């Protein structure tokens, strides 16, 4: 798409979506202002002259309603008539809730019984009155997605238009999109930019939360409990917010680290602790010591540092200790816990309502398993200690604690393997392979470079040759018997 086409495309989105957003914002703002203004109006008795309820059927069978009516009232000795029933600035017919039916029923009952109704009159302008001065919160919530989401698209289109106009060449539009939606990390891999994640999370939540708010009362009233699955969409929104917060925190840490040590690829070699560690490694394996000094990573690349968010690393007196942080998996644990709770509640509702006994039990069991997995992530921790050629591992889980002690000679390889992926980014687990078993020495390691760095750090502390570290995601160089 050429530059002129990109400008036209951005303008079209800005006008169409931005126009809807502006109208919805005006409707919300003016309704709120009218409700605040009507708080100072006075209560007056009135008689109903007419009441009506118009129903319109749409092309897909949906029915919308519009209440109408007229009333007469006296204020300070003068007679007035009014026809305004609600405080909303939008007007027209809708089926957002049953407000129109309720207002019509109250007017019809008063007219049939010959009883007066209460209206609210502006004392500064007695000809101005309203029957119901309360805000229709369902209507406000209904308009919020149009104000925020459509308005957000309009603003985003204007921002994109600015980038396109500032860009040069035919590829300017695509380059602007790439800059807005991604950034290049220290390992050369493209990651979602915090700004884009915040924008996407805002758009998603602006739509999903109001829809769920409007749908849940009707679902509960009708007993259609499966419809509570709509809660999964706000749950995804919470996950997006967590991703935005995490990306922002990571970007802040990266900028802070870059400002403090712009040329730092490895910890400073002048530190006394580093000299002592390198001297100890040289006693066991000169080749490993040389690799440590050069900071060699996989395929000759510089080895990356192990982020503090992954593990707390302590190295003193010839002892290396890695305590893996439980905070790394907090977001995943919360997502699993919320998802499991929602599924369990829906399953219980289906079971006790008798609408789907088998489906209710299945959903309850699935939800319970997800909750158990979340708790396991909360309580699980892993500590690895390397001292004098011996590897000690302490693993705590929901089902108890396990420990291992392995001598350097018994370890055939340190093998990183992919555990799961998030947005295409692999997360690795790390095992020490022996002839008899695989001992966990790392988990939830983000990216192959980090997994390789952890494996090499452990290998150096063991005094083992670099060849003991298997390629990330590859097969172990030593066969593991079943």
Pattern of helices and strands: HEEEHEEHHEEHHHHEEHHEEEEEEH
- How many β strands by DSSP? 15
From the alpha carbons, calculate the radius of gyration and give it in angstroms. 33 Å
Reported for the largest beta sheet, the result is: 5 strands, antiparallel
Strand content: 15-25%
> What is the 3D form?
elongated
Number of helices: 11
Average pLDDT number: 75
Strand order of the largest sheet: 3-2-1-4-5
- Counting helices, strands and paired strands, the structural category is alpha+beta
The portion of residues assigned to helices is: 40-55%
C-alpha end-to-end distance: 57 Å
pLDDT under 50 segments (min length 5)? 184-190, 261-301, 474-482
Task: Explain what this protein looks like in three dimensions.
- This protein has eleven helices and 15 strands.
- The chain has 482 residues and is α+β, with helices and mostly antiparallel strands.
- The strands form four sheets. Strands 3-2-1-4-5 form a five-stranded antiparallel beta sheet.
- Strand 14 and strand 15 form a beta hairpin.
- The radius of gyration is 33 Å and the shape is elongated.
């Amino acid at each position: 798409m050429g530059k002129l086409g990109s400008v036209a495309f951005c303008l079209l989105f800005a006008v169409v979506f931005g126009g809807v957003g502006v109208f919805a914002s005006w409707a919300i703002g003016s309704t709120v202002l009218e409700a605040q203004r009507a708080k100072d109006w006075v209560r007056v008795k009135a008689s109903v002259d007419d009441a009506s309820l118009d129903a319109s059927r749409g092309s897909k069978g949906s029915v919308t309603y519009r209440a109408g009516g007229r009333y007469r009232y006296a204020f300070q000795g003068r007679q007035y008539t009014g026809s305004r029933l609600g405080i909303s600035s939008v007007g027209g017919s809708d089926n957002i809730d049953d407000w129109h039916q309720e207002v019509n029923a109250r007017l019809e009952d008063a007219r049939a019984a010959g009883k007066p109704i209460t209206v609210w009159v502006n004392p500064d302008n007695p000809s101005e009155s309203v029957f119901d001065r309360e805000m229709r919160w369902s209507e406000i919530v209904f308009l919020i997605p149009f104000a925020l989401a459509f308005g957000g698209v309009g603003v985003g289109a204007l921002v994109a238009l600015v980038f396109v106009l500032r860009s040069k060449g035919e590829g300017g539009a695509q380059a602007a999109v790439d800059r807005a939606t991604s950034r290049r990390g220290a390992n050369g891999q493209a990651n979602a930019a915090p700004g884009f994640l915040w924008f996407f999370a805002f758009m998603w939540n602006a739509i999903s939360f109001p829809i769920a708010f409007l749908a849940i009362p009707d679902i509960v009233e009708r007993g259609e409990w499966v419809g509570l699955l709509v809660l999964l969409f706000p749950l995804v929104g919470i996950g997006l917010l967590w991703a935005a917060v995490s990306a922002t925190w990571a970007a802040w840490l990266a900028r802070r680290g870059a400002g403090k040590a712009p040329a730092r690829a490895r910890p400073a070699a002048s530190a006394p602790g580093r000299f002592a560690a390198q001297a100890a490694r040289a006693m066991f394996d000169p080749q490993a010591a040389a690799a440590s000094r050069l900071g060699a990573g996989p395929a000759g690349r510089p080895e990356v540092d192990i982020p503090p968010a992954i593990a707390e690393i302590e190295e003193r007196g010839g002892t290396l200790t890695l305590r893996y942080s439980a905070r790394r998996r907090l977001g995943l644990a919360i997502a699993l816990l919320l998802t499991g709770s929602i599924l369990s509640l829906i399953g219980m509702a289906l079971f006790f309502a008798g609408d789907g006994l088998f489906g209710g039990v299945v959903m309850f069991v699935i939800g319970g398993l997800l909750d158990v997995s979340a708790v396991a992530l909360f309580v699980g921790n892993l500590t690895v200690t390397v001292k004098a050629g011996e590897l000690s591992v302490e693993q705590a889980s929901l089902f108890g604690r396990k420990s291992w002690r392995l001598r350097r000679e018994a370890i055939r390889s340190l093998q990183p393997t992919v555990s799961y992926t998030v947005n295409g980014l692999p997360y690795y687990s790390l095992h020490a392979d022996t002839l008899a078993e695989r001992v966990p020495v790392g988990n939830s390691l983000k990216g192959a470079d980090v997994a390789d760095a952890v494996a090499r750090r452990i290998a150096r502390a063991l005094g083992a040759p670099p060849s003991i570290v298997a390629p990330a995601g590859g097969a172990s160089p030593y066969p593991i018997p079943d």
